[in-house]
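Lay summary. Proteins are chains of building blocks that fold into shapes, and those shapes determine what they do. In this project we predict the shape from the chain. Here is one chain we studied, written as its sequence of building blocks.
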Amino acid sequence: MEPEALDQAFEEILSGPYKQIVTTGGPIDYWPGSIGPATFAERAADYLRSKRPKVTVIAVPAPSSSIHQTYLSGVMVREWARRSGITVKSLDVFSAGTHARPSRPLYKLVFGPNVRVGVFAARNFTYDPNAWWHTTTGARAVLDEAIRLFWVKCCFWPPAPESL
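And here is the predicted shape, written in a compact code that computers can read:
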């Protein structure tokens, strides 16, 4: 997520009853020789820590994969929680704009029916969400995520847990 979206997430986190802040995401592709965080999880965690150094933020990176990256990120968070002895009863996923819609069912698949999964969508300032079809950016974002949601609902069959 971009800094503006992370700022929105941070506002929600500070106003809510959250016990853990966990960032996740896969590898960042850099040009050879460039430096910076290796994953989106680490980049987001670094950014949030820079906003409030005393707030604990845990980065849970996901590897690159040919399966759905959002699903795999959820699996990595679930496995981190298990290794840490944390029983997850509920969680909120904060995602960028229209990507939030397919994120919720994917996290529900990962965590199962006994975990309440909420979702927050960062406001997108590059187009008007009430008139998204007026710009190519808005149309692309909404249509891409609509296709992704349709695919998740009808065609995504997660791999067996032991294969991840």
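What the prediction tells us: The beta strands are 22-25, 58-61, 90-96, 116-122.
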